[in-house]
């Protein structure tokens, strides 16, 4: 009732955002509210203070100590951290007593293990009392130590048969990991902060929490003490190189990884494992860089595989074989693709790593689709989707749905293809995860096939905009050829010829030919322009387009 009375007069004066900011402020605890009631009910702080005063000394100590858990806590966590402080009663008895008195609450969601939490205002009150008692630093240090231990245990298990269990456990504790990490950084406990961040990054990267990783990396990198821990820092650089690759910033990824490689090399034998990982990620980056010599990627992967072999690192070998398969796929060397991917699959199965199995299934499905083996492609795409749904790996689910859309488009089942593309695009936009670009392109292709040219052009344009900085040159090429087909279909043959020439030139420059299935759809429309102009005139105009720079071609394409 007090909270309602405090908020009600302000509803007409303040926006919801302003109200929320006000609610988060200390003023909410001390705001004078209801009249003609006992003093303990006039403010929230008084109400909580009255309940607090009724607690025993042991209950007060535990209550304030538990306020360092922003994401709630398990009984195991509370016992591990605070059992050394309890004298008269066990921690479990004290937690039960606080729960019975509604000072803490049983959280309804979560795992098999019971979780408890505090309401926000009660937690604010408890934190203030903890600071007043000068116990905050010690409590937060214990909290950091507990979650560092949990993260390091998870880091060892994350690629094994208990993968799903550990991922879910880490997700439940996400707020606690962030709080522990931020405390470690703010209190300049650099070694512990580096260990914690490195240990939880696999899950954070998998959940696409790239911005919160980047901000903490930037903070740590700016501290001079970081160079006192070269091995931990270099491992963080490995992770950051992979993150920059995921973001499409391949040049930054390469620079970060080169810095890490220098550190690993200086560490000698001690740095061999980290160096193998660093070289593998460099190979991944080289594999996807536009215009990069494939032999560079191959050499990096071979060196990485050799180091993994020496160390007996099965997971490192599994992932490197996967990258060898992807590199061969980009070169259309299918006699190399499938043996490499099967080696990778065997090792991931041996490890019980379903995330790895899903990644190999994804690639096998794509390459079987390119080989027009639709049944094998479907089986691998469905396995990919099932495993990533089990992991709640949204980025993987988005890719799997898009791949199934592609399969049905290739089979001519266009309505079913549209359903999968739209589901994938919806997830991408809803969760702000992954690259929405290809779904936009594919929906453009569907609209082109259905001869809805206005919608097709919108999808192609959105695809180009969304892919800037990721695969921009490829996106420009596909956007231009899409616009060429639309121009040909809407009685603009000269425009179609120039745009097709610009697209052809760029596709040749980046060595990324248009997939044959899509090329057939484009040719079906562009044939109209050839027929209208005649072959000689068409080729002359096409040569004009080939002479355009990408910027000139884009400017020409977007002119109404």
Question: What would your notes on this structure say?
Answer:
Strands 1-3-2 form a 3-stranded antiparallel beta sheet. The longest helix is centred in the first third of the chain and has 22 residues. With 560 residues, the chain is mostly helical.
Q: What order do the strands of the largest sheet run in, or round the barrel if closed?
A: 1-3-2
Question: Structural class of the secondary elements?
Answer: mainly alpha
Strand content: under 5%
Mean pLDDT: 90
Low-confidence stretches: none
Total helical elements: 30
Q: What is the number of E strands?
A: 3
> What would you report as the Rg, rounded to the nearest angstrom?
29 Å
Major sheet, described briefly? 3 strands, antiparallel
Q: Rough shape?
A: globular
**Relative helix content:** over 70%
Q: Top keywords for this entry?
A:
mainly alpha; 30 helices; 3 strands; 1% strand; three-stranded antiparallel β-sheet; 560 residues; 75% helix
